[in-house]
Amino acid sequence: MWKTVLRRILIMIPQLIILSILVFFLAKMMPGDPFSGLIGPNTDPKQLEALKRQAGLYDPVPVQYAHWLKNLFKGDLGISYIQHVPVTSLIADRAVNTFWLALITTIITYCVAIPLGVTAGRHQDEWQDQAVQIFNYITFAVPPFVFYILGIWLFGFTLGWFPISGSVSPNASGFFGTIGSQIYHIILPACLVALISTTSIVQYLRTGIVDNKVEDYVRTAHSKGVPDNVVFSKHILRNSLLPIASSFGSVIAGLLSGSMIVESVFSYPGMGKLFLDSIGQRDYSTLTALILIFGVLTLLGNLLSDIIMSIVDPRIRIK
Amino acid sequence: MEKQSDLLLDIQHLHTAYRLQGKFYDAADDINITLKRDEILSVVGESGCGKSTIAASIIGLYDHKNTKVTGDILYNELNLVGLNENLFNKIRGNKIGMIFQDPLASLNPLMRVGDQVAETLYYHTDMNEKERHARVIELFNQVGMPKPEETYAMYPFELSGGLRQRIVIAMAIACKPEVIIADEPTTALDVTIQAQILDLLEDIQKQSHSGIILITHDLGVVAETADQVAVMYAGQVVEKADVKTIFEHPLHPYTRSLLNSMPQSEDEEEDLHVIHGTVPSLKNMPREGDRFAARIPWIPASAHEKEPVMHEIDPGHWVRCTCWKTFHFEDDEASGE
Amino acid sequence: MAKEIIQVKNLKVHYPIRSGFWNRVTDYVRAVDDVSITINEGETYGLIGESGSGKSTTGKAIVGVEPITSGQIIYQGVNITTAKNRRKLNYNKDVQMIFQDSMSSLNPRKRIEDIIAEPIRNFENLTTDQERERVQELLDIVGMPSDSLYKYPHEFSGGQRQRIGVARAVATNPRLIVADEPTSALDLSVQAQVLNFMKHIQQQYDIAYLFISHDLGVVKHMSENLAIMHRGRLVEIGSRDDIYNHPMHIYTKRLLSAIPLVDVEHREENKKHRQEVEQEFQNDQSKWYDDKGRVYPLQQVSGKHWVALPKDELKQEEIKEKGRD
Interface pTM (ipTM) of the complex? Predict the structure, then answer.
């Protein structure tokens, strides 16, 4: 198994290199450079030229790439063209916020999706299944932002249960107070995102259970005199959870890099909102850095999925 | 006559009907068969004749919503028809073991094979984990597993077809059941493996004095292993006798036609015997008169009984309908379609 | 002496096995390893083997749907292992295939008319009327009612579908049909029907069959000459009489003894005999297989009878005598 995992990690290296080259050229093609926005009416063009030369902007492309890569390893993603602070520090705060949002969303997603999928699969074609299916159609068909706006309107304005923007209340004080306020801010957006991300998991699980139920080995288990509920939990459910477990990596990667809409609707200061803001402000250096991060996250998510798969599936584990 | 306790299964007037588009159709129609201790009863017939339906009815594994089972399946005076599921689970795997056709599909792909066998023991014995493990190893030895200890921790995909079927058999016999139902146990296997598995089944039967119901379409397998034979056609048993009688003095036209269509017949250059028409589907099965009549059209209607029943021609030799008396094969030149 | 229609010479189909950390090719699966057979015009040549013996791969290689590693397939004096040569000789028209699983080999969305007409459309230019007439004729040959034309595969039973498969294979007037387990999925009485049709068509149109099967009873009924395959290699080839009445290789004997016989009277003896042969097979592995577990090359024993005997000449004589007892 370790061989499989190690090989899988090695495969990631060329993927990362290709990603970095793509992002590098993307960055090169974007208008502007670190000195954009610094130019005032008094700036001496010659001095600017010299600065640019000094910064290596006229070096051959491979040298620039190597330089960029070296900085990357040092954690230097460049300077924001608009805010004039290092991109790394700009992203760092937001990343923490997005991480918490994604984590709580993931927990809620699985807590909702697994019971729903199990109910639907177990009571296939009965009213329970039909109810879950209707729920699924709705969450699948309605655009996410409609959900978010409805959620804000209902739980934020009308009922006033949750805050509708930001990541923490300015009045929060003390360690626990801050954490509490943060969680309080996260709950509503997390629940709403989870509602949508359950769709595919519910569907996978339901199909898995329905398919596994009629497999011969389930009949064998029954023929051994194993009680119904044990056949369900030990044979049917366990085998149906396999693809769910393996999709975990991509789900969490998707949540980390795909939170733009929810973050902007909730004005939640995370990476997604930063991404949209950077587009709006034409902050290309931040933008490319974020694209790089999202790309890496996706690769890591897939890696995680493959590793989980090789742990839970003996057919892959033993080789 | 046998002692009462030698009778393991007494199936009387069993009707098993499946729901198709809202209506129930009998797939097994008035089945009367018995299984005795120390006996291999073979139920033989072509696909769709209802032989597997009987197996499913005995062990109570069918879609309860779309299946209707009536009649009696008496196991030691206990009627299995309509038996409460909790009680049935105490019998399945414990008193009645089941072996299926496809050994790969019948095993859980994600569970160690040893654990799958031990699972049976968990529900029917009060052995602890260690004892169960020891018993599984003992069973693996009994079914001729080459490396029992190593095999315990393996997964089905790591084993060959023959070894997988040995696992399935070990599972079925783990609790020393009195009745073993084997539904096409060798159909998915190579012929050399088939021979070994059949030998194994016979050995197990001799050692444990159990009764085996062997469901198969293969007349060769029947001839080599069965003691008693029930030939089925279109949901009914058409002939019942000991194995020698079936193969040496078959009476029912269907039995005779089937034996005749085997390519093992002596004359290799001759055409094989073909039975007219096709096996009727469940929905189109003739429900009145002799169901086989349509396939031997040259036999006059008067030769058939109106409501064909089983007649005991010789002690223990039962044949449905009276048409066997006048039955003859159609002229050779017209045997094709 | 009948004229040969196809000659397979030293056919090899090897698949690489990748393993180790770098997934490099470490060995090969010798699915078909040095197989040579000759099929005569209008005859049925049986190819017998258990699952994994390479018999189906051999069939597919002959039809040209399986890339071969090395070897020659000679048809009309030309090696047709290249697609170019196959086209030149109209090989794909002359050699057709019948599959085991008629359900998955017939396109479920096409009507029977189109299924049977497909090979005709590929190779001949017929008007719609001529084509329909030809399809009708083919349906007649396999004994299917003419209203089958407009039905779909799922509306037929397994035996009927297999007959449609035969009709499709016959459509181009082929000279050789490779039949891969054509009746394995069928019931006994239906099998008889299909086998009879195959024989009738053969006599009528002088078609040769390569009949691939695991069922020794069926092959005995169908073929004059046959080959036994094991672990990708030929174990024994010969006439029906050679193989069934004078088998020499232990594997052939084992295979023959394992067929369940409809002989209730002697079943105990048969069983004992079978177990003795099995014992011999287990004990004499080193004698009949080389140190890699591979079958030895074939050696001629008599006329058509070739057996994969151990190299040792002396032993060969011994066995020869034993086989002729």
Answer: 0.88
- Give the pLDDT confidence of C233-268 residue by residue, as tens digits: 999 999 999 999 999 999 999 999 998 888 888 999
What pLDDT, on the 0 to 100 scale, is given for residue B233? Answer: 94
- Least Cα distance to C41 among C207, C211, C240 occurs for C207
Against chain B, the chains showing at least 3 CB pairs within 8 Å are A, C
| C134-152 pLDDT tens trace | 898 888 888 788 888 888 8
Q: Residue A216 and residue B106: Cβ atoms within 8 Å?
A: yes
Residue of C29, C25, C27, C2 lying closest to C15 (CA atoms) = C29
Instruction: Give contacts of C 22-51 with B, CB under 8 A.
Output: 50-51
In this structure, how many other beta carbons lie within 10 angstroms of the beta carbon of residue A161? 11
pLDDT of residue B336: 41
Confidence of residue B332 (pLDDT cuts 50, 70, 90): very low
Q: Is pLDDT above 90 for B272?
A: no
Q: What is the pTM of this model?
A: 0.85
Among B195, B217, B271, the residue with its CB nearest the CB of C188 is B217
**B-C contacts at Cβ under 8 angstroms:** 116
pLDDT, one tens digit per residue, over C75-125 is 988 898 888 888 888 888 899 998 887 677 888 888 988 888 888 888 888
For the residues C11-32, what does the mean pLDDT come to?
Answer: 83
Q: What is the nearest CA distance from A7 to chain C, expressed in angstroms? A: 7
CB-based contact A217 B106, cutoff 8 Å: yes
Q: What are the DSSP E strand ranges found in chain A?
A: none
State whether residue A238 sits within 8 Å of chain B by CB.
yes
Domain C4-230 has CATH 3.40.309.10: no
CA distance B50 to B248: 25
Quote the tokens at residue A38.
Answer: 């610094």
**Long-range contacts at C195-204 (CB < 8 A, ≥ 24 apart):** C195/B263, C195/B272, C195/C221, C195/C222, C196/B271, C196/B272, C196/B274, C196/B336, C197/C141, C197/C142, C197/C143, C197/C163, C197/C166, C198/C166, C198/C222, C199/B271, C200/B336, C201/C141, C201/C142, C201/C166, C201/C170, C202/C42, C202/C44, C204/C141
- Residue B12, burial from CB neighbour count under 10 angstroms (0-12, 13-18, 19+): middle
**Pairwise pLDDT comparison (B213 vs A285), residue with the higher score:** B213
- d(CA C11, CA C226) in angstroms, rounded, equals 17
Q: Which of A43-57, A103-117, A294-308, B282-296 has the lowest mean pLDDT?
A: A43-57
What is the phi-psi region of residue A200: left when phi exceeds 0, alpha when psi lies from -120 to 50, beta otherwise? alpha
Provide the pLDDT for residue A319.
Answer: 61
* Closest chain B residue to the Cα of C266, Cα to Cα: B224
Instruction: Name the minimum distance, in Å, from the CA of C132 to any CA of chain B.
Output: 23
* Contact status of C17 with chain A (Cβ, < 8 Å): no
Q: Is residue A43 very low, low, confident or very high in pLDDT (cuts 50, 70, 90)? A: confident
C264:B161 CB<8 A: no
Any CB–CB contact under 8 A between B100 and chain A?
Answer: yes
Give contacts of C24 with chain A, Cβ < 8 Å.
none
* CB contact A316 to B (< 8 Å): no
Domain ranges of chain C: 4-230
Which distant-in-sequence residues (6+ apart) come within 8 Å of C207 by Cβ? C42, C170, C174, C175, C176, C177, C201
Select from C159, C190, C254 the Cβ nearest to the Cβ of B192: C254
3-state SS, residue B11: strand
